[in-house]
Design brief:
Family: Belongs to the phosphoglycerate mutase family. BPG-dependent PGAM subfamily.
Number of helices: 8
GO biological process, one term: glycolytic process
CATH topology: Rossmann fold
Oligomer: single chain
Keywords: Gluconeogenesis, Glycolysis, Isomerase
Shape: globular
Strand order of the largest sheet: 3-2-4-1-5-6
Pathway: Carbohydrate degradation; glycolysis; pyruvate from D-glyceraldehyde 3-phosphate: step 3/5
CATH superfamily: Phosphoglycerate mutase-like
CATH class: Alpha Beta
Strand content: 5-15%
Bound molecules: 3-phosphoglyceric acid
Catalytic activity: (2R)-2-phosphoglycerate = (2R)-3-phosphoglycerate
């Protein structure tokens, strides 16, 4: 019996649309983001996926995405586990700033280092490594045991917190994960064996 893990990045948010660093700030989904979340729900339902357990971050955009997916799948009477370990990477002092304005102020190279280096944190914030250091232990303690037991688990979270999970699951190097972009509304799924190792990536 194999487990199945489905990772979903929240739909487009107001600040994704405005091109602002978001991190731990609470922002709403746009109309497009709501549509993306609903489309993901339809896609999972059409694939015959019936999750046993549901996890999300402590941030509204990921929680709202999960609610919309569940509505489309017609799933009611469930328990959702919300934990800030799954929150987006904290962008610190960059939060709320426009990404183009930040490039104009600090230069393309510096902003790219803050956004896509593995272990250089933005001022007052978390590097991807810092994010992985809270996201991966949470995954291993709270989610992986259910996957080993053959359950299907749905997680809605964020670009960088999911990147940290994908790195661990696929066994990627820092360089490899930095090149991986996780799109809003496109589920990433894995079959997981009883030993906790990935058996295969599943296209939904
Ligand atoms: O927090 C944010 O701004 C985004 O969710 C992720 O941003 P990034 O692609 O710039 O890391």
């Amino acid at each position: 019996m194999t487990g199945m893990l489905i990772l979903v990045r929240h739909g487009q948010s107001e600040w994704n649309l405005k091109n602002l660093f978001t991190g731990w700030r609470n922002v709403e989904l746009t109309e497009q983001g709501i549509g993306e979340a609903r489309a993901t729900g339809k896609k999972l339902a059409a694939a015959g996926i019936v999750p046993d357990l549901f996890y999300t971050s402590a941030l509204r955009r990921a929680q709202h995405t999960l609610d919309l997916i569940l509505e489309e799948m017609g799933i009611v009477n469930l328990t959702i586990t919300r934990n800030q370990a799954l929150n987006e990477r904290d962008y610190g002092d960059l939060s709320g700033l426009n990404k183009d304005d930040a490039r104009a102020k600090w230069g393309d190279e510096q902003v790219l280092i803050w956004r896509r280096s593995y272990d250089v944190p933005p001022p007052g914030g978390e590097s991807l490594k810092d994010t992985a250091d809270r996201t991966q232990p949470y995954f291993e303690a709270e989610i992986l045991p259910h996957l080993k037991a053959g359950k299907t688990v749905l997680v809605t979270a964020h670009g960088n917190s999911l990147r940290a999970l994908v790195k661990a699951i696929e066994g990627l190097t820092p360089d490899e994960i930095l090149k991986r972009e996780i799109a809003t509304g496109e589920p990433v799924a894995y079959r997981i064996g009883p030993d906790g190792a990935m058996i295969e990536k599943v296209t939904l």
